[in-house]
Design a protein that fits this description.
Strand order of the largest sheet: 1-11-10-5-2-3-4
Bound molecules: 6-O-phosphono-beta-D-fructofuranose
Mean pLDDT: 95
Largest sheet: 7 strands, parallel
Strand content: 15-25%
Low-confidence stretches: none
Structural class: alpha/beta
Number of strands: 11
Number of helices: 12
Order of helices and strands: HHEHEHEHEHHEEHHEEEHEHEH
Radius of gyration: 17 Å
């Protein structure tokens, strides 16, 4: 709190919240681009925020990635059982196991004394294959649950980095570049104005579904991600942003 005051982070949070038209912004001192430990601080802060809004019967949908992973890691262990359910927001097998949404869902659920479900759907899978998978009873039941999420916790990446990481074909990467894709979040590739230019086929929470979610919480930091974070905030997909000073400072220069 003292460091917050000293660095003027409270003002930064309010200014960002107003300019980005969000409900709440939390800015952690430092920059993950310079120091990976800042990711843990963001994770801890996000975990505390989550704890303050979770109800005993909440359904939390989350995405993968190193930042959301820290939220689960930093969540304190609860010793009471709850009806909290944690589910992955998308398919998205394909990254390192510990950073996959399925794994993070299981870690967070155990921390919260709740339960979890997994979705075994690879990232780079075609629309036809998805159409056959989602009628499988096991998969359909998870999708039905995740559509009822009251909390969606997600990471934000740069579109170019995520397209590489997901090994998208070079034709798609060229298209993304031409279309001005700036960020990727929840499977949507967005331009700087927050408009969707491309969607990953394994999306189950559509933009319409997201409108009905009470708490859309994004966790993402690092000055290199400033434009990506701005782009996702412009899409209306974010209620609460937890970021770091490095990103916040850069974002304020361009909004
Ligand atoms: O792949 C899941 C995901 O949450 C993406 O939607 C997002 O772009 C990315 O991970 C963020 O990953 P990281 O926090 O590791 O930068």
């Amino acid at each position: 709190e003292f460091i917050h005051e000293l660095k003027g982070l409270n003002n930064m949070e309010k200014t960002l919240r107003d300019r980005l038209k969000l409900k709440k912004v939390i800015v952690i001192p430092g920059d993950v681009d310079n120091d990976q430990l800042i990711k843990k601080d963001m994770g801890k802060s996000a975990a505390n925020y989550l704890k303050s809004i979770i109800k005993n019967d909440s359904i939390i949908a989350l995405t993968g990635g190193s930042t959301v992973m820290e939220v689960a890691n930093e969540m304190p262990q609860s010793y009471t059982k709850s009806d909290i359910m944690v589910v992955p927001a998308r398919g998205g097998l394909g990254r390192d196991v510990e950073k996959q949404a399925n794994t993070i869902a299981s870690v967070l659920a155990k921390k919260l004394g709740g339960s979890y479900k997994m979705l075994h759907i690879p990232d780079n899978i075609g629309k036809e294959a998805i159409a056959t998978l989602i009628i499988e009873p096991d998969i359909k039941s998870v999708i039905d649950i995740l559509k009822k999420a009251d909390i969606v916790l997600f990471g934000i990446g740069r579109a170019d980095v995520m397209a590489d990481r997901r090994n998208l074909p070079s034709s798609t990467r060229d298209y993304l570049e031409k279309a001005g894709a700036t960020s990727e979040a929840l499977g949507f590739y967005l331009n700087i104005n927050g408009e969707t230019v491309y969607e990953t086929p394994s999306i189950f929470l559509t933009k319409d579904d997201l409108k009905d979610v009470k708490n859309l919480i994004a966790v993402s930091g690092g000055r290199s991600k400033a434009d990506a974070i701005l782009s996702t905030c412009n899409s209306g997909m974010v209620d609460v942003l937890i970021t770091d000073e490095g990103a916040a400072y850069e974002i304020l220069k361009s909004c």
